[in-house]
Amino acid sequence: MPVGLFRVCLLVITAIVNHPLFFPKENGTVPESTEEIIQKMKEREESLRLEQLRLEQEIADQEATQKALEKAAMVVEESKEEKVRWDMWTALSMVIFLLIELWRQDFQEGNWQDIGGEEDDMAVLGKAFKGVAFPDKAVLASFYEKRILGTTADMARMREMVEGFADDLLEALRSVCNRDADMEVEDCMGVGSMYENWRVRKPFVCDLIVPFAPPEPYCFRCQTWCSGDSFPPDEQGYGTIKVCRADEDVTGCICDKTKLGEDMLCLLHSQVSSTKPSSEMEDLLCFKNTQYLDADQVMKWFQIAVTKAWNRISHKYEFDLSFSLLDSPGALKIKFKSGKSIAFNLTPVVQYENSDVYFISHFPRSSLAAEIPSSTHWFLTFAVYERRFIQLVSKTLPANACHVSCLQILSFLHGKQCSLTGPSGLTNYHLKTVLLHLLHARPSQDWAPEKLEARLQDMLKFLEKCLHEKKLYHFFIGNGKIPAELGFPIVFQRAEPLNLFRPFVLRRDIYRKMVDTFHEMLRNMSALINEYTVHIPLAHTNGIRKEPV
């Protein structure tokens, strides 16, 4: 008890002694003023506020980062869903496109060249005819008799002379060629306007094609753009010719596509039957290091062979023979001592399988093959079938039918206009294609001789329609209604229609020139015809009824 009381007293004494109010001088700590305390409290409050702001900023940054991550995840998810939807729409669009394409092909097969039932379309056309004075029947008949018939009377005599000389020249060519190494030349055939009796402009030029074949044991294997092989759009109408051995597998052996190894041997092909070295293939007129027939090599070979043949038989004739065009293999000219000359084309061709379709190396005086993709691409000509079709249809037409007259008049007008304003992309082959379409579409009685004026107007309107649409389809390719009597290959009937105006879609300058030439021809038609027409009494012309345009 005393000890506890003592401890309490000692604690009280110690507290009294150490109180600052009793000994202010000895105590070094003085109470702070109120202002200092307030200032420190403000500083502390400011530091706490800054810390709070920092924490709030960190929290805001974390929330923004979280939102960005969530948004990115949503975008990825939406892109996946959009991709799925896009793939679905793409597939659906492809299906719709295929259905439309199938319908279009069926529609074309069922309505190919159904021009006879398109009287309304023909009535809507003819904008270029407004204000054009179209010659009547009497003027056209006089023009045709004086200008056309007067200049074509000696065509038959010229054809006979050229064919006889060409046969003699080819016989000499066979004799100078090596039968074991050179190409085998067959008999020539006449094609084109001279043999279809519608050429009107001088100089008259006979077009002859000469099929040739490789020496044994080789053969030609032809590939066309419509035979299943992949050809780009600008190569439609072309094909390639491969030189193969006759005993070579058509489909090709796997040994040509797979490396068998040095210790393995193909049981079908030995080293003897393997592909010949490139030098021997070049001797067969192939492109370098390939098996494809080269048109340029064929041109050189044919020109050399024709020169040798002429040197052998030149002593029998009293005229000179020369090449008129260096870039055409058989553009020949006969020059008589009197100064007169006769031009004709002797062009080498390759037969397509067992048909009368031919691969032609060059087109003299024609823009049909103006831009050949390469010298191994050959253009297909259907000239033999075109001649046969005209002959077949002519048998069903009335006597003195006007179909050839229409083509002759139109060809004459176009030639005269080109001589005035310069050549255009429009060719006589385009004009003949228009006639073939109309011959196939219109009934036979519409081609009676008294309907010359109406049919000529139909040809001009149809050509105007084609120029406006930039579409003039080849008559045979893609046409499923070719008469069976012609024996036309079915592979070309089932092919996609070939637009002869396709090159002008991208060449706007040529297309503009072609349209301008056509319109100028219409405006100058009456003047050109009246220039070659004798005077016809007015009473005679008033008694003839004109068919409406």
TrEMBL record:
Keywords: Cell membrane, Coiled coil, Glycoprotein, Membrane, Nucleus, Signal, Transmembrane, Transmembrane helix. Residues 38-72 form a coiled coil. Residues 404-478 form the Mab-21-like HhH/H2TH-like domain. GO terms for cellular component: nuclear outer membrane; plasma membrane. SMART domains: Mab-21 (SM01265). The keyword Transmembrane applies. It holds the Pfam family Mab-21_C. Residues 1-20 form the signal peptide. Its main location: membrane. GO terms for molecular function: protein kinase inhibitor activity. It is found in: Cell membrane; Nucleus outer membrane. Belongs to the ITPRIP family. Enhances Ca(2+)-mediated inhibition of inositol 1,4,5-triphosphate receptor (ITPR) Ca(2+) release. This is Inositol 1,4,5-trisphosphate receptor-interacting protein. It comes from Tichodroma muraria. The gene is Itprip.
